[in-house]
Amino acid sequence: MGKSRIGHRLDRVEGALAVxxxxxxxxxxxxxxxxxxxxxxxxxxxxxxEHGKLSAEDARDKALAxxxxxxxxxxxxxxxxxSWFDLDAIARRDPxxxxxxxxxVKRAAxxxxxxxxxxARALEGFDSHCWSRAQFLAIRAELSAAWRPRxxxxxxxxxxxxxxxxxxxxxxxxLTACDGVASSRARRxxxxxxxxxxxxxxxxxxxxxxxxxxxRFHRLYLRTLRALQDMRRLPPVVVRAxxxxxxxxxxxxxxxxxxx
Length: 260
Prior knowledge:
By secondary structure, the protein is mostly helical. The protein is built from ten helices and three strands; from the N terminus they run ααααααααααβββ.
């Protein structure tokens, strides 16, 4: 029995994204990209059939169409908004350009991580502001200056430290705000010259939750700090030459003369 149309499409897209004489890992990546593109194509066909009430053949033809506006959109859209269907649209007209576009997306993702903006966005959700982003990056910059990370693993831990510190401050602010609101309410009900009355149970619960969350993120900060300290105690591993590795001040021979 022959391959399904989706199967043939996966092979075609994989061939379009793969370049001759690529290394094995790049060929594997081309296969993974082709799988995602083929899945996206199948979802688009299902969308046209369900919502456009098209036949299977008409839905497939519409999904295969690549008008100029779709192609230009796929080339111009910011890297963080490029869809698999967009990548497929480029590959249909210009496979080499599709491969370059994917590399652009990967470089943008690497830059987002290296600059700290990816770690910051993880805390923001859909509520992003210039000031909160700058505050996070300021914490990260101070921690990075203090620790001078030697590699990406240490930088990842520093990013986590900045995240835990940001969240701890957030919940400390919540604790202070809840306490202020409760105290103000108590003074209004008992009079300005009277001692504050008892808090409502809901107020006490909010205070306890905020205190518990602040304490939780403080513990996470300390745990991550210990992990960073433990990593820093490990001696660096430096490969000087084939068959010889320097670990700290000790020289380790991996093989005798003639070892390949």
